[in-house]
Amino acid sequence: MNSNHIEIIGLIGATLTTASFLPQVYQTWKTKDVSGLSLPMFSMFFVGILFWFAYGILINSLSIVLANAITAISSFILVYFKLKYRNK
Amino acid sequence: MNSNHIEIIGLIGATLTTASFLPQVYQTWKTKDVSGLSLPMFSMFFVGILFWFAYGILINSLSIVLANAITAISSFILVYFKLKYRNK
User: Fold this and answer.
1) Which CATH number is associated with domain A3-85?
2) Residue A38 and residue B17: Cβ atoms within 8 Å?
3) Which residues have C-beta within 8 Å of that of residue B69, sequence separation ≥ 6?
4) What is the ipTM of this complex?
């Protein structure tokens, strides 16, 4: 397997894990139902994603940089929704 | 920054994003409240993680392999909980 094929596998992973947050953001925005979401999860996740982003820059991996830039935004929105809607 | 320092940044990201699923799994297991969890999110996320796992093996990144092995298990459990408890 050459390095192009390997990078394609990384990009498929990146696309799926990144895109997976969109239905969650959409559902939460639509329903304002955050009772089942764990605040420690999404805040830890967000901070972890910032480290992955830095790692991607340092090892020059486009898959990792792109995926984590978008996921950082999505997970930040979910933390914001959780804080905003949790008392409703 | 040498490659050991870079790998430490990756491992911090790996530890945080992996560990972040544990409070979610615990909360969902405890409360059986899955109404706010998006099934498309966690199923897409699970499949994406399997690609990241393969990518980690192919580029020989220990951070990526370890993190995604554990996250695959956690996200699979959340998909299972969502399917099991969604009609309760």
Assistant:
1) 1.20.1280.290
2) no
3) B53
4) 0.85
